[in-house]
Amino acid sequence: MSKVVERFIKYIGYDTRSDEESATRPTTPGQIVFAKALAEELVSLGMEDVSLDDNGYIMATLPSNVEKDVPVIGFIAHLDTSPEVTATNINPKFVENYNGEDIILNEEKNIILSPKEFPELRNYVGKTLITTDGNTLLGADDKAGVAEIMTAMETLIQNPHIRHGKIRIAFTTDEEIGKVGEYFDIEKFGANLAYTLDGEGIGQLIYENFNAASAKITIYGKAVFTGEAKGRMINSMGIANETINSFPENETPENTDGYEGFYHLASVSGKVEETRLHYFIRDFDEKSFEERKAFVADTVQAINRKYGENTAVLELTEQYRNMKDKIEAVKYIVDIAVEAMKEVNIFPNITSLRGGTEGARLSHLGLPTPDLSAGGHNFHSKYEFISTYAMEKSVEVILKIVELFEEM
């Protein structure tokens, strides 16, 4: 088992799901537990300036081993996993020499990872896959990225003949609940540019992503005895249903692709007196994004006009923006990543991301940060998988990027 795979298997043993309802920083204690373990490992590897702040953010330095000036490069990954699927007691399964056929993840529950549904599996025929057991997610998002960065730093430390400038690494928390780099200290990090290791598949390179916002709509009703409810009861769930039906039927994740935006009803909870709706708003185009936010606000206002002021209350929070313009201003950092992939025999797959990455927020804060592949597929689900080959190649890409910057 290679070092990066060994690390990955160890890291997914930490339950680091983030929690949007928590008011703590980070939002779950498991993230701090993992962060402390990583900080100790970084010190043992020989990294310098290792720091762990109250938010669970880790930063560390690998000093330059050359005399000339080289841009300071950052590599970043996040510690948390999605709260959408359980991540407790992850039991990874190894599928060696994958034959291109269905993989039974859980026979009892009839959970099958099939190339008919997930055709990207066919790209890994003959490779070793790591899958779930059908009960949890795997955690490749983004513990694969963490393992790859850690392994690359260890490789550089153990091989001082590889010439490189100063390198900064950072691991962050609560990325999966929209707090992408929310507490990231750009000045403290001190890099000229950075790459996140958070993308899917082999060779994925992203510098364009959704604009994103979170819309929480709380609808208030009035509960009375059902036998005397006529003209008195106001059922918040009924109003919530009316609200849901006012959204465009086909502008949802399951009905859109490419550059099409959407509204995603992520959760519903309620009783007669109070119902909560949580929507994700997504769009690549800034003008359309603003129009979508305005639509949600207008929908809430319409409910209040019909049922009375403050029947519906909207909490609209912007999460991240499209990083395209920020990266195109320094396009050479994308070009170097493309060259690095080619030199380690990976086909660069430059694509737009129908989602977000910490690089989006950091780019708008002044640290241009495109996103590189961490190697996994089907994030946030029990069908998540990753190949050992993809992780090993991601380490090679990091090392090659470092070398190319030194040769500039």
Detailed description of the structure:
The protein is α+β, with helices and mostly antiparallel strands. The chain has 2 domains: 3-209 and 322-407, 3-Layer(aba) Sandwich (Aminopeptidase), CATH 3.40.630.10; 211-320, Alpha-Beta Plaits, CATH 3.30.70. The protein has helices at 3-11, 29-45, 140-158, 186-189, 236-245, 286-307, 324-328, 332-343, 358-365, 388-407, and strands at residues 48-52, 58-62, 73-78, 93-95, 103-106, 111-113, 129-131, 167-172, 193-200, 204-209, 211-220, 262-270, 274-283, 312-320, 349-353, 371-377, 385-387. The strands form 3 sheets. Strands 1, 2, 3, 4, 7, 8, 9, 10, 15, 16 and 17 form an 11-stranded mixed sheet that branches. Strands 12-13-11-14 form a 4-stranded antiparallel sheet. β5 (103-106) and β6 (111-113) form a beta hairpin. α1 (3-11) packs across α3 and α3 (140-158) packs across α10. 45% of the residues are buried.
